[in-house]
Design brief:
2 domains; nine-stranded mixed sheet; globular; 43% helix
Length: 327
């Protein structure tokens, strides 16, 4: 008998990184400790125009932790979605499991994922439980808004499918059907507007853009709590200054994202009216101060959280008034 055919790769784990030399070794070490030792998964590192020692560090770490399972490629065009586009073209698996270079998967992460996928053949996007691994002592404000702003996600112990067109799991640990990604990157609207994070810039709506397109194509978007990873978050990402920049970027991303599911946002006149509404909301809320519901939820932090919400609305207003950007 001839040599038995190699089992096809079901999942390509993809780590898109920018200047991740200090962070990415922990991710690759965690992947090297996965309990699933089958050839059903591989690893692809996409270096998004790093200027540090990322290429050398990745090569050494792959050889040490993932021999014959990992590859390194470089994408010179800055922007997370450009890195993901490259991943969609170069990955070998039917699904791509995206990890950020500060996401540490549990030892059974891939074993769980490979068990889940055959149970949900119509799944387009799957995400799991993301816990905070604080590097240093976070600010109280950072901890208070982590579930919204810092990709922390724990939605209980029961798996479910999201219903609303913009609802989905956290971007950290997002697993996406590769054919869906390929279709997304053929979509000129996404390709020219949803570029995602660029270098150290904050904000972006690329994760939600993927979720929106999955819903629109009739694919399931699922939460699977058995998929567990830790998100390492340094103290610097919990300062008020950082969070204000982040919330403004989130607001800008929301304005861009609306173009994908709301025809009014694609009409220049209606787009300006939507932006004007956000501008008036920003002024009114600034005069009124933190509303009672924020004071009930956040107590002494209510004014700080209100300032973050205000910066988010301001970002949405400025991006909506400016209109779709081109890259």
């Amino acid at each position: 008998m001839g040599e038995q055919a190699r089992e096809p790769i079901a999942v390509s784990v993809c780590i898109c990184t920018f200047n991740g030399a200090e962070r990415i070794p922990l991710v690759l070490e965690a992947l090297g400790r996965q309990t699933d030792a089958t050839p059903r998964w591989d690893v692809l590192v996409v270096d998004n125009a790093s200027t540090d020692q990322t290429p050398t560090v990745v090569a050494e770490s792959l050889a040490r932790n993932l021999p014959n399972r990992g590859r390194y490629i470089r994408e010179e065009q800055p922007g997370l979605m450009y890195a993901r586009r490259t991943a969609s073209r170069r990955a070998r698996g039917e699904y791509i499991a995206f990890l950020d270079d500060d996401n540490i998967p549990a030892p059974d992460y891939l074993a769980q994922l490979l068990t889940i996928l055959p149970l949900h053949p119509n799944a387009g996007v799957i995400g799991g439980r993301v816990w905070a691994d604080w590097v240093g002592e976070p600010t109280a404000l950072g901890k208070a808004v982590a579930s919204f702003a810092l990709a922390i996600c724990d939605r209980g112990d029961v798996p479910f499918a999201y219903g609303d067109v913009t609802s989905g799991p956290a971007g950290a640990g997002l697993t996406v059907r590769r054919s869906l990604l390929e279709a997304i990157f053929e979509d000129a609207q996404v390709a020219t507007q949803m570029v995602g994070r660029i270098g150290s810039a904050l904000g972006g709506s690329d994760d939600t853009a993927i979720v929106v397109r999955a819903h629109q194509r009739g694919l399931e978007v699922r939460y699977e709590p058995s998929l567990v990873l830790a998100h390492r978050i340094p103290t610097a990402r919990t300062t008020p200054e950082y969070l204000l920049r982040l919330y403004e970027g989130i607001g800008r991303g929301q304005a861009d994202l609306r173009l994908l599911f709301d025809w009014k946002a694609r009409n220049p006149l209606f787009r300006r009216l939507i932006a004007l509404k956000d501008g008036l909301r920003w002024i009114w809320r600034g005069l009124r101060g933190a509303p009672p519901e924020l004071r009930r939820e956040f107590g002494a932090l209510a004014d700080d959280v209100h300032a973050l919400h205000q910066r988010q609305v301001f970002g949405r207003f400025t991006a909506g008034w400016r209109g779709p950007h081109r890259v």
